[in-house]
Amino acid sequence: MSQIERPPTKMDEAPGTAETDQPGLAAVRTAVHNRIWTRLPKGATLRRDVIAALSSAVSNVPDGMANGALLGVSPVHGLYGAMVGPAVGGALSSTKMMMITTMAAASLSAAQALGDLKGSERMDGLFAMVILIGIIQVLAGLFRLGRLLRFVSYSVTTGFLLGVSVLLILNQLPVVTGRDSDGGIGGAIQLLFSPETIHMPSLVIASIALILALALPYTPVKNIGRLIAVVLPSLIVLALGLDDVTQVRDNGDIPQGLPLPVLPPLSAFTPSVVTGAFAVAIIILVQSAGVSQSVPNPDGSARKISRDFAAIGFANMLSGLLRGLPVGGSLSGTALSVLYGGETRWTAILAGFFMALIVLLFSGTVGLVAMPALGSLLILAGFSSINLHDIRFVVETGWPSWLAGGTTFVAMLFLPIQAAVGFGVVLSAFLYINRSSTDVSVVELVERDDGFIEERHPPRQLPSEAVTVLDVYGHLFYAGARTLERLLPRPGDANRPVVVLRLRGLTSMGATLQDVLSDYADKLSSRGGRLYLTGVRPEVRVQVNRANRLDLSGPVTMLEATATRGESTRRAVAESHTWLVQGAAAEDLENG
Asked: What is the pLDDT of residue 308?
C-alpha cells in the first residue's frame, strides 16, 4: 500500500533528528496541514486582519458600554459580550466576515423583558436569559429552523425594528437630561410638560458627546471618534468636578480583570425571563439573518443560516456564563470590520482577543465614563437604525403591508416585548394565510387550431354536454380551498357537464379541499356530469384513498401525473368526449 506523503517540516531539514512514525500518522499530518494551517492568514492578509481587529475592538468599546447601560447593569458587562461574541461567533459561523457582538435591539428587548427587576435579581435574570437565548438559538440551528423566518413578513419586521429604534431613543431621554424618571412614551410626555426638571449640566455633556460623535467620523480619527466622543465629555466632568452628573461607577462596582464562568441560580429562571429569552432570541436571529444575507464570503464559499444560528447560540451561552450581554450579528460592527480592511474570520476572532486585553487592562477606568455621553451614543444609534427607505417601501406597497407594519410598530411602543414579538409572529402567520387563501385563481385551458393552449377566464356557468378544462394557480390550503370553491364554474341548468381540473404540483390534499371537490362532484353528478382530477401525484392519491371522501367509483375520476406534462389531462379530455358521445348515442337509442 502506498504511503501518503506528508508535508515537509523543519524537523526534516535538521540533521540527526528522528521522527516517530505510525500507521496513519502521515495522513493525520496532511489533514492538519491542509484543513487547519492553510486557513490562518499570512503576510499582508494577517496584517490587515490584525489592524481591522484592533480597530473593531476599540470601536466596540463605547457600543458595548452603552448597551450595558441600556440594560441597567454595569457597562463592563457589555464589554464581556463584545469580547466573547466576536471570538466564538467568528470561529464558528459560516458567514466569515460577520461580527457577532452586542446589539442595541437585543439589549433594549432584554431590558424590557426584565421589567422592574433591580440589583442582583436583575443581574441574575439577565445572565440566565442570555444562557437561555443561546440554548434556543443552538437548537434552532440544529433543527434547521432558519426557514421559519420566511414566515415573518418584511412589513412586520420593518415595523418591529422601527419600534425598537424609537424606544431606544425614548428610553435614553432620562439619561441625557439627568432626570429620575421612566423612559418610553410616558417619560417623553412627562419631559414635554415639565422641562424645568432637566438637569442642564447632564444635557450639556450629552450634547457635547452627540456633536463629537456626529463630527469626528468625518475627521482623520474616523470611527475611533465615537470612543473620543465618550472619553472627552467624561474628562470634562472630572476636570470641572461635576459630581451631580451621573457616572458609570454610580450604578455599582466595576469588576476588575477577566470574568470567570458563573451559573445563575435556578431562582433566576422565572417565567418572564424564559418568555423574554424566546422573544430576544427571535429578534437576534431575524437581524442576524439579514446581516448574513448581506455579507458574502470573500472566498465565495457558501453561507449556511442554520450554522450561523448555532454559532450565535454558542456565543450567547458562553457570554451568559461569563456574565456578558446578549450578542448577535451586528450590521454596523460587520460593516466597520470590512471598512477597516478585514479579509478573513480571524478579524472577528482577534477582535475578541483585543477586547479581552482592554477589559483586563482598563476595566477600572470604565467607572469614570459619564452616563449622558453613553446615552447620546444610544440616541444616535436609534436614529441611524431608522431606515426611511424601508418605511416608504412598506407604505407604498399597499394597505396590507402598511397595516401590518404600522400595527406591529404600535404594539412595540405599548406592549411588553414578549407580547409584541408574539403579536408580530401571529400577524405574519395571519397575513401569510390570508394572502395564500386569496391568491388563488382559476383559468380555462382551450386548445387553439395551431395546437397552442390558450388561457381564458372560466365561464360562470358550465355549458351542457361539453368538456371544460380548468387549471388552478395558488395554494389550496383550507382557506385557499374555500376560495377555489367560489371560483369554480357552477353547473346551473347544464346537462351532463364535464370538468377536467388540473392539480399538477399539488403535494397534499387536505380535508377541506377534499370536501370542496366532493361537493362539486355531487353538483356535477346531479346534472348528469362528471369531474376528472388530473396530474395527481401518487402520494396524493394514497391520501385520497385513505380518507375515502371522494367517490372515485362514481362521478370522480382521478388520473395520476406522468413525466410528460399535460398527458393525463389530454387523456381525461379524450375519455370525457368518448363518455359524452356514448351517452348521447344511448340517449338517442332510448328515444328512437
From this structure: 93
pLDDT in tens, 389-430: 888 988 888 777 888 888 889 988 888 776 777 787 788 777
Contact 230, 248 (CB under 8 A): no
pLDDT of 33: 43
Residues 343 and 337: their CA atoms lie apart, in Å, by: 9
pLDDT for 592 equals 59
Q: Which residues pair with 217 in a beta bridge?
A: none
Phi-psi region of 415 (alpha: psi -120 to 50; beta: other; left: phi over 0): beta
CA–CA separation, 421 vs 425, rounded Å? 6
For the chain, give every domain's residue range.
Answer: 1-32, 44-431, 441-591
Q: b vs e for 453-474, b when ≥16 Cβ sit within 10 Å of the residue's Cβ?
A: eeeeebeeebeebbbbbbbbeb
Distance between CA atoms of residues 7 and 16, nearest Å: 19
User: What are the grid coordinates assigned to 199, written together?
Assistant: 438637569
Q: What is the torsional sign of CA 137, 139, 141, 144?
A: negative
d(CA 320, CA 80): 9
| Helix, coil or strand: residue 402 | helix
pLDDT of residue 212: 92
Which of the residues in the chain have pLDDT under 70?
Answer: 1-41, 148-151, 223, 251-253, 294, 418, 436-437, 587-592
- Give the DSSP H or E segment for 532: strand 530-536
**Torsion angle, CA of 154/334/273/253, rounded to 10 degrees?**
-150
Instruction: Give strand pairing partners of 441.
Output: 473
Q: Contact 96/296 with Cβ under 8 angstroms? A: no
Helix, strand, coil percent values for the chain (each to nearest 5): 65, 10, 30
Cell of 81: 459580550
Query: CATH homologous superfamily for 441-591?
Result: STAS domain (3.30.750.24)
**What is the rounded CA–CA span in Å between residue 280 and residue 410?**
18
The rounded distance, in Å, linking the Cα atoms of 463 and 465 is 7
CB neighbour list of residue 312: distance below 8 Å, 6 or more residues apart: 89, 93, 100, 134, 137, 284, 285, 288, 327, 328, 329
CA 236 to chain centre: 42
Return the DSSP state at 510: -
Q: Which of 65, 103, 78 is nearest to 370 (CA)?
A: 65
β partners of residue 101: 328
Q: What beta strand segments (E) does 383-516 contain?
A: 441-447, 453-456, 467-473, 498-502
Q: Are strands 441-447 and 453-456 parallel, antiparallel or unpaired?
A: antiparallel
How many residues are present in the chain? 592
pLDDT at residue 37, rounded to an integer:
41
**How many angstroms separate the CA atoms of 396 and 52, rounded?**
40
Q: State pTM to two decimals.
A: 0.67
Query: What are 160's three cell numbers?
Result: 418591529
Task: Output the nine-digit C-alpha cell for 261.
Answer: 464562568
**From CA 553, how far away is CA 557, in angstroms rounded?**
8
List Cβ neighbours of 33 (8 Å cut-off, separation of 6 or more). 6, 7
Is 559 within 8 Å of 568 (Cβ atoms)? yes
CB-CB neighbours of 393 under 10 Å: 16
